[in-house]
Design brief:
cytoplasm; 16 helices; Ketoacyl_synth_N; Peroxisomal Thiolase, Chain A, domain 1; alpha/beta; 3-oxoacyl-[acyl-carrier-protein] synthase 1; two-stranded antiparallel ribbon; acyltransferase activity
Length: about 425
């Protein structure tokens, strides 16, 4: 029999707020973390706006030792450690200082790619026959599992310590992987989340695909427009989100604060067949993912009060709304409230799911549904499916009991997780 799993800690390093307090305030106010980047302009990018966390150098001293900071040049690793350590502390847990690993505690922390700038530096040094100058931290900063290895060592965890990678689905997938491990009794506590790198070497490929907005270089905060008729594409972003998942028994024994319960979810793929491809979703798979997530969570579709969609501000937004409606059998005014945080934080790629799950859960804590920024002109195809009142423009007071969160990624992969307000 599966055990109940709850969320007892959260941390975030987002483009519009570093730390839960600042991030919550930013979501309330609709504050944007999207800015013009002179470096992208110098490199002749078509889209010269992006979203990345603003982390001050003196802040890093709270998260890294002087030795760890030496030669550190991997933005995703930095974001992930900040979010991960904050979530661990928020859960009332301390780093392990004994000589025995915390056998019941693990890490599942994902990324798409790690240490791109560090890897670039390494290439130049190798080509210049300066291999000995690479330094001892090059490998840890450039291997994908560097983030989980870093956090596992900082916290002293002895259960599974691993990194998952599933494009934009990574963060949400990691939460479900952690949920399954705890619910099956293989762990008591798992720090899960995901991080994504900043910079032109990450964002350049998307600019070349011409799927980023090009008409907002002088108006960055208006560039990301999920569900809008005037949307031109997604704004690239970066950062990290982290959650501590824990068995209910463990949380109660510790007297831990409980943010929410994870009821269940589903992972699948469209197989890149039919209408599915490397970059386009297979609608049948998306609908099946949503339906099975609801079924696996032991609820009915009408019980879902709010949805935090993937909704990237591309031409696929209207299709996503249709897929939600078909999967749930709900439309018009009966459709749940739905929002996307990407109007404020852009599309944080591998970090998107975890950052957005943190924001979704905060709605239980605050008794609100956060608003949709830059969605004054809702796409007419969306309005054919659901009523415009279900897409709040600003934060509204509302106390959701059940929230669905989904992420859909390159490679035609899907994840949907169902959270509920905690009830003893």
């Amino acid at each position: 029999m599966s055990r109940r799993v709850v969320v007892t800690g959260m941390g975030v390093c987002a483009p519009n707020g570093v730390g839960i307090k600042d991030f919550t305030e930013a979501l309330y106010k609709g504050k944007s973390g999207i800015r013009h980047h002179s470096r992208l302009e110098q490199l002749n990018f078509g889209c010269q706006v992006a979203a990345e966390p603003l982390v001050k150098d003196n802040v890093l001293e709270r998260y890294f030792t002087p030795l760890q900071l030496r030669g550190l040049n991997a933005s995703g690793l930095v974001y992930g450690v900040i979010a991960g350590k904050d979530a661990w502390a928020d859960a009332g847990l301390s780093p392990n200082t004994s000589k025995t690993p915390l056998w019941d505690c693990g890490i599942i922390f994902g990324t798409g790619i790690l240490g791109v700038d560090k890897f670039r530096d390494a290439i130049y040094q190798v080509d210049n026959k300066e291999v000995r100058r690479l330094g001892s931290t090059t490998v840890i900063q450039t291997m994908a599992s560097g983030i989980s290895a870093y956090l596992g060592g900082i916290l002293g965890c002895g259960n599974q310590v691993t990194t998952n990678s599933s494009a934009c689905t990574t963060g949400t997938e990691g939460i479900l992987m952690a949920y399954e491990r705890i619910s099956s009794g293989k762990a008591e506590v798992i720090l899960t989340g995901s991080c994504g790198e900043s910079g032109p070497y990450i964002w350049g490929g998307f600019d070349a695909m011409r799927i980023l907005p090009r008409d907002f270089n002088d108006n960055p905060s208006a560039a990301s427009r999920p569900m809008s008729a005037s949307a031109q594409g997604f704004v690239p972003g970066s950062g990290a989100g982290a959650l501590v998942l824990e068995s209910l028994e463990s949380a109660q024994k510790r007297g831990a604060k409980i943010y929410a319960e994870v009821l269940g979810g589903e992972l699948n793929s469209g197989g890149q067949v039919g209408e599915g491809s490397m970059t386009a979703p297979n609608s049948e798979a998306v609908q099946r993912c949503i339906q099975k997530a609801i079924r696996n969570s032991g609820i009915k579709a009408p019980q879902v009060d709010a949805i935090n969609g993937h909704l990237t501000a591309t031409s696929k937004d209207a299709l996503e709304i249709t897929n939600w409606s078909v999967a749930m059998g709900l439309s018009g005014v009966k459709f749940p409230y739905i929002n996307s945080f990407k109007g404020m934080i852009g599309h944080c790629l591998s970090a998107a799911g975890s950052i957005e799950c943190v924001g979704s859960i905060l709605q239980f804590e605050e008794g609100v549904v956060f608003g949709n920024v830059n969605c004054e002109d809702i796409h007419p195809e969306i309005l054919k499916v659901i009523d415009g009142s279900r897409i709040p423009q600003k934060t509204i007071p509302y106390r959701p009991k059940i929230i669905a969160k989904a992420s859909f990624g390159f490679g035609d992969v899907n994840a949907c997780v169902i959270f509920s307000a905690y009830k003893n």
